[in-house]
Amino acid sequence: PELNKFDIELSSISSKHPIDSSNMHPGIWIDLAKTIQNNYAKYDGFVILHGSDTMSFTASALSYMLENLGKPVVLTGSQLPIGIIRTDGKENLITSIEIAGTKLKGKPIVTEVCIYFEYKLYRGNRTFKYNSSHFDAFKSPNYPALAEAGVNIQYNKTALLKAGHKALKVHTDLDNSIAVLKLFPGISKKITSAIINAPGVKAIILETFGAGNCTTEAWFTDELKKAIGKGIIILNITQCLEGKVIQGMYETSSHLKKLGVVGGADLTFESAVTKLMFLLGQKLSGTQIKKLLQSNLRGEMS
């Protein structure tokens, strides 16, 4: 009933085959991007209802796929199902719609892919789900909230991406030939080698300690060197929830920089995965991909 009070014309598009968000895959991201592309001229903004578990992956992927986005795309959902009395879904949906429909001087205030959850609007490719049971389920530790909803919605205008003047360009080629190697004390050569040498791997996300540090044992360095020699791109991101990778700050990361490992700065894991999928899908050279991994394409890194 509350939605009828908005001075906004609403339309809905339902998925033919709804899934649990744990079954999310790149094919659905492509469908979502195409749906936005096909309806872009008809609507002022878009709200996507999505399960919370993989919402940050979807928001990150769409941020890369929707180049020159000039309208709001807001993802939201709930921790409790919408039919439960104490659901958080009702407020999340209502405020997401208001944000998607809000303009200032005839132009949308938000022109990027966002997540709205528990009174806060975040840049999608900066978020991760940090709590499985609280309504305040998402965090953006390395970038401030874009807006906060109270009696009024207060926008952090200095944090918002500036709208461009180019036409929307939708990228639908994604390549998921990615492996993830999360380091821990005592990681074995056998397991490391199996991951690095898995058939078809084009890129590896290396989750390191602190500011991008890892073991300096010769066997580990040799494995990375062989992988890079085969043209595999290795992206270094930190296991820490805040801060960023600075290769060369300590001896335990200097060798990575010399090998040609790419420093991922403050990319979240979700953003690193989807950025690699996006760049690998563009059929670029290894040199071009490495350069773009270190470039701020959609506000995803500092």
Describe this structure in words.
This protein is of the alpha/beta class and 302 residues long. The protein folds into 2 domains: 2-170, L-asparaginase, N-terminal domain (Rossmann fold); 178-293, Rossmann fold. It has 8 helices and 16 strands. It has helices spanning 26-39, 55-65, 89-101, 189-196, 218-229, 251-259, 269-280, 286-293; strands at residues 46-49, 66-67, 73-76, 103-104, 107-108, 113-117, 120-123, 128-129, 138-139, 147-149, 153-155, 169-170, 178-182, 203-208, 233-238, 262-263. The longest helix is centred in the N-terminal third of the chain and has 14 residues, at 26-39. The chain is elongated, with a radius of gyration of 20 Å. The model has no long low-confidence stretch (mean pLDDT 96).
